[in-house]
Design goal:
five-stranded antiparallel beta sheet, alpha+beta, 6 domains, OB fold (Dihydrolipoamide Acetyltransferase, E2P), 18 helices, 33 strands
């Protein structure tokens, strides 16, 4: 719609507040957001649903709105600190996007005391002339209590963290072990040496693997591999429409925090019946594959089974065994080492296929937060991605692809994991960036993942490799769940589903239900959770999904995608809080770092060794004007030509930590010789203005002292604020002149 035609039109959307007082209206029609002035935000709160009118456009063509009607106010409680100021009780929301403090009558503070973290329910909404009112509904505790950051996050992002009484009752009624009736119509794989391979801190084990040599054709020598991936059969216990299922759908995913997990399923299932614990019989859904030496999947079959994990391996242990089959780790697991070697061989074959189809595989650094007993950061360490990690990853990818193929061949609706190529805007930005670098490599107008991987491989040894790979990653879209199969761009698959983690992801549970229905010649209906006999097709006619059924699959995909993002946001919020708390102990300290992102307002830098990110605002880069080059993704000084781009090495000082805003600010540490020369030149000019020889001598003496103090202050003065040397010299000179006048 043209700008002129849209002016004064009415739109509906959700208010998104900003900590600076203004806000935006995120429109339902996915058109550009409307800017809402601080005045407009006085009568609404973050996340309110409103109708607004477009009243004007700024010089850049961005629309501004005026609120006409409030359609819906969120019922969720608001989390904040209870304060007592000038005899008035109020709550300062922890989420600064709310923008307004909430007044609390004295008789509505429950048992809370000043300074505590509370949940508050609105009793009177805000208006143009009054602040919102509320009452305390829950007292969470003191801000420094261990785990308080998690308690805040689950409420701030509305993460369901309590199971309903009906769910807890249903879980308690489940058996402790599998029963004879559960074994019926299942293949017994208890003699197959399946093993689990997970991280040291894993608590639930939902996948097990096994591999042995196999033969394709009439030859006698093995020329392929049989790869078995067994996944916990959650769908056997979690039935559609039951309380456990309703809670699981509401959560859609488990949420992982440092030292704590909020599971999708009750513990009796996630850590008990559905966890493939070693030496315990468990129900499983199995994908049994025949993989060729080039990594191609020749055949596969799905079936329900009973299995028994023969061992619980860690990634570190498997990596050590594969690196040294005569080492102590291998000696302790001697009977299983041959099977691990078979798994390694099939992994190598699958890796060949990955390279052939051009799947994207960038090396990135993931970190792990190690906390102390009080839940505070002890250290942040990089996660080492070993061959064992990659082995399990490739095995799971193979099973996921087979499940997608099985469902697609049956023309049955399901939730696909879709990752589309770059948007036209991101594609153009990347093309211009690569052209500006002069690499001689670029992506086409219809890019393939192979083109991305070719650029990554060709630049991996360059000094700016990190910068290039970051730009490649940022050009891609976010993966989502949807009922429409559009392929997976990054993995270079025509169809891809999630089958391997039904304990922690609801889409995987739905895929299991669909596969089970198809194995019995039936169809699964998402709307009712029922299965029915599949109608017979005539002359190869395709089975289709009704409009309402298709819409329900799309709605389920949107729900699962949104809750996946919610879980990620909550996890990042907690990690950011912990990092801010950690960095408060390092105020004023200097660190080396790497620029990881460049914006028009500054640089984001990751500190060496600490793996903590912070912002160097553009005003901290030096006394000149810096221009942002969007094509090259760099800031360039107009006078000196100094450039800062992704991957640049810098030295910074921790200058400010905002715990409430989850922000860490750095200031750039410049060459001290240049600063000292500037100080002396300014000092000489100031001293020349002294009104007597005594004043001049005093000023010079004191200025020399200030120079030394200022140089020391450049590394921080304990408060986190660096002294300004020129201002310090000015102050000393003024004092010296005044002293000389008094002496006269």
């Amino acid at each position: 719609m043209a700008v002129g035609a849209e002016l004064m039109s009415e739109v509906v959307g959700t208010v998104q507040g900003h900590r600076d007082g203004h806000g935006f209206l995120v429109r339902d029609d996915r058109q550009p957001d409307l800017y809402l002035s601080p005045q407009e935000m006085r009568a609404v709160l973050h996340r309110d649903r409103v109708k607004a009118r477009i009243i004007r456009y700024d010089r850049k063509g961005r629309p501004e709105g005026r609120i006409l009607e409030i359609l819906e106010r969120k019922k969720a409680p608001i989390i904040g600190r209870l304060l007592h100021e000038s005899g008035i009780w109020l709550v300062a929301p922890e989420d600064k996007r709310y923008g307004q403090d909430i007044m609390v009558p004295k008789n509505a503070i429950a048992n809370a005391t000043a300074g505590q973290v509370v949940a508050i329910e609105l009793t009177e909404p805000p208006s143009l002339y009054s602040q919102p009112m509320g009452r305390v509904t829950e007292v969470l505790g003191e801000i420094d209590d261990p785990g308080m950051e998690i308690e805040i996050a689950v409420r701030k992002y509305e993460v369901p963290h309590r199971f309903s009484p009906e769910t807890l009752a249903q879980a308690a009624a489940l058996p402790d072990k599998i029963r004879p009736i559960d074994r019926k119509h299942r293949i017994d794989l208890t003699d197959v040496p399946l093993v689990t391979i997970d991280g040291e801190d894993a608590r639930d084990f939902d996948d097990a693997v096994y591999c042995e040599p196999a033969t394709i054709g009439r030859g006698k020598s093995p020329n392929a591999w049989r790869l078995v991936v067994a996944i916990a059969d959650v769908s056997h216990y979690v039935k559609p429409g039951e309380p456990i299922d309703e809670d699981a759908y509401e959560r859609a995913t488990s949420v992982y925090f440092p030292r704590r997990v909020i599971p999708m399923l009750p513990e009796k299932l996630s850590n008990g019946l559905c966890s493939l614990n070693p030496n315990e019989d468990r129900l499983a859904m199995v994908c049994d594959m025949l993989v060729g030496t080039a990594g191609e999947i020749h055949a596969y079959q799905f079936f329900p089974a009973v299995m028994c994990s023969h061992a619980r391996f860690t990634y570190t242990e498997v990596a050590a065994i594969l690196a040294n089959t005569r080492g102590p780790e291998a000696a302790r697991r001697s009977e299983l080492v041959p099977h691990l070697l078979n798994l390694n061989e099939v992994y190598r074959a699958l890796l060949k296929a990955r390279g052939k189809r051009g799947a994207v595989d960038f090396e990135t650094t993931e970190t792990q937060i190690v906390c102390d007993e009080n839940g505070r950061i002890e250290k942040i360490v990089p996660r080492t991605r070993t061959e064992a990690h990659k082995l399990i990853e490739e095995a799971m990818l193979a099973a996921n692809v087979c499940s997608a193929d099985f469902i697609a061949l049956a023309k049955h609706p399901a939730l696909y994991r879709v990752h589309e190529g770059p948007t036209p805007e991101k594609k153009t930005l990347l093309q211009n960036y690569l052209k500006a670098l002069g690499l001689g490599l670029s992506i086409s107008d219809d890019p393939t993942p192979g083109e991305y991987q070719a650029i990554a491989d060709a630049t991996k040894d360059r000094p700016d490799a990190m910068q290039i790979h970051t730009m490649l990653l940022r050009s891609m879209q976010q993966a989502i769940y949807t009922g429409t199969n559009a392929g997976h761009f990054g993995l270079a698959y025509e169809a891809y589903t999630h089958f391997t983690s039904p304990i922690r992801r609801y889409p995987d549970l739905l895929v299991h239900r669909v596969i089970k229905a198809l194995l019995h010649g039936k169809r699964y209906h998402l709307s009712t959770g029922a299965t029915e006999e599949a109608p017979k097709r005539r002359n190869g006619a395709k089975q289709t999904t009704t409009g309402s059924e298709g819409e329900m699959w799309e709605a389920a995909g949107a729900h699962c995608s949104a809750n996946e993002r919610r879980a990620d946001e909550a996890s990042r919020d907690v990690e950011a809080w912990l990092k801010c708390r950690y960095m408060r102990e390092h105020l004023g300290e200097e660190f080396g770092g790497t620029v990881t992102a460049v914006t028009s307002f500054g640089l984001f830098v990751t500190l060496d060794g600490l793996y903590v990110d912070g912002l160097v605002h553009i005003t901290e880069l030096g006394g000149e004007y810096y221009r942002f080059d969007e094509v090259k993704q760099e800031l360039r000084g107009e006078r000196t030509g100094v450039r800062y781009a992704v991957g640049a090495r810098v030295r910074v000082q921790v200058s400010r930590v905002d715990l409430d805003g989850r922000k860490i600010d750095f200031r750039m540490v410049h060459d001290s010789d240049e600063d000292a020369a500037l100080i002396r030149a300014r000092r000489d000019r100031l001293v020349g203005k002294a009104s007597s020889a005594v004043a001049e001598l005093a000023a010079v003496k004191d200025a020399d002292r200030v120079i030394k103090a200022a140089a020391k202050a450049k590394s921080g003065n304990g408060s986190g604020k660096a002294a300004h040397p020129v201002r310090a010299v000015k102050a000393v000179a003024r004092k010296a002149s005044a002293k000389a006048v008094r002496r006269r």
